[in-house]
């Protein structure tokens, strides 16, 4: 079993498949390294695909205490993966919780003025709880969910949270795939999942307070969301309007776990994105394309090029 050690001493399980330009996949709260199987099977024919389990997700180590879990730690664990595998840079693809980690990695390691650690960033299903109108409630929900996990276990979480309003789309389209994902969720460590909710999800900052740092990201970014993933629609628009080199893709009649729900569409989109990035250049948005009259929530000024 392949493991690497983070800079604070936590062992992370990883899988390394294929050869070529590296892609690092970063999983969501309800998933683990197995959640990327449709992508690994597709992209490992031409790319080197790395998946890993976040801290708190077996067979990675499950540290005790919520202070070992934070937005900063998720960001630095992603860096530790690249460092341990001697990857100066890679395409980084994250979903949901993994998309937050990917975005924060971009803010820290792909800002203007420094050699970027990513060839590109894919930020999919990002933004749950980020909007100011939802922020306080989302943090309270994370604390309540952690208490439920500790009291009722992972099987109950899988049977409730796993069937939420942005996941029923997956269930309705692909019952077998959905059942597999739910079974995998039920196998997760209760302690690790509760610590993740309390230490990471209930304490992460709102994206709407980080727009200056987000705007400094200077690599190609693909933002993707399902059109029925209500919690992520507005934040996805924020990211598109804030990151100079961002593109936005909205999956029709789709929920949260779009890489599993619509794997063919997701893989085709990534294929095209990687191809365009690798052939270069991927320019920043033309300032003339901004439309201040419809600029989104939060009242930020119109987009301006750096």
Automatic annotation (TrEMBL):
Recorded coiled-coil stretches: none
Ranges where the AB hydrolase-1 domain occurs: 22-263
UniProt keyword terms in alphabetical order: Hydrolase
GO CC entries: membrane
Gene3D superfamilies: alpha/beta hydrolase (3.40.50.1820)
Molecular function, one GO term: hydrolase activity
Keyword Hydrolase appears in the UniProt entry: yes
InterPro entries listed in its UniProt record: AB_hydrolase_1, AB_hydrolase_fold, AB_hydrolase_sf
Pfam (any one): Abhydrolase_1
Keyword match Lipid metabolism: no
PANTHER family: AB HYDROLASE SUPERFAMILY PROTEIN YCLE, MONOACYLGLYCEROL LIPASE
Record-given protein name: Alpha/beta fold hydrolase
Highest classification ranks of the organism: Bacteria, Pseudomonadati, Pseudomonadota, Betaproteobacteria, Burkholderiales
